[in-house]
Specification:
The protein is α+β, with helices and mostly antiparallel strands. It has three helices and eleven strands. It has one domain: M1 Pyruvate Kinase, Domain 3, CATH 2.40.33. This is MOSC domain-containing protein.
Length: 146
């Protein structure tokens, strides 16, 4: 079963992640209070717990998922190029997967080798556009739709 297991946002550019149990997600602002939530193809980032665990295993490190600085963490699905253009439903929220969240130099600064191990197989997660406003909660079911 796929489900949402964590929600985070960055209230200020380059600031620490803030974790919440519930969030209002809108087409105009992305995850409430997120600095990067403006409309566009990279409005929200979603990461797979399964892929994050693989990354940590390869690094032989136990890093919090917030190191990746994604907005949402789901379990039960590993992202791939085949997901681009699909819809991701989280509770009543609908997102369009617009592409891969490319790892950047910030990941290397966070932990040596992190950028390289995030690069294969969309391990860094996906970027999404918000298609419908909704309140999401940890534990919400996640569906991948064609």
């Amino acid at each position: 079963m796929k489900k949402l297991i964590a929600i985070g946002f960055k209230p200020v550019k380059q600031g620490p992640m803030t974790l919440v149990k519930s969030a209002d997600v809108t087409q105009s602002h992305g995850v409430e209070q997120d600095f990067f939530g403006r409309p566009g193809k990279r409005q929200i980032t979603v990461m797979s717990k399964d892929q994050w665990q693989l990354v940590c295993s390869e690094l032989d490190a136990s890093l919090p998922w917030t190191t990746r600085r994604a907005n949402l963490l789901i379990e039960g699905h590993s992202f791939s190029a085949a997901d681009k253009g699909k819809l991701l439903r989280i509770g009543k929220l609908t997102l369009e997967i617009t592409g891969e969240t490319d790892p950047c130099k910030k990941m290397e600064i966070a932990h040596a080798g992190l950028e390289a191990v995030l690069t294969p197989d969309w391990r860094g997660g996906v970027t999404c556009r918000v298609l419908s406003d909704a309140v999401i909660n940890e534990g919400d079911l996640v569906q991948l739709l064609n």
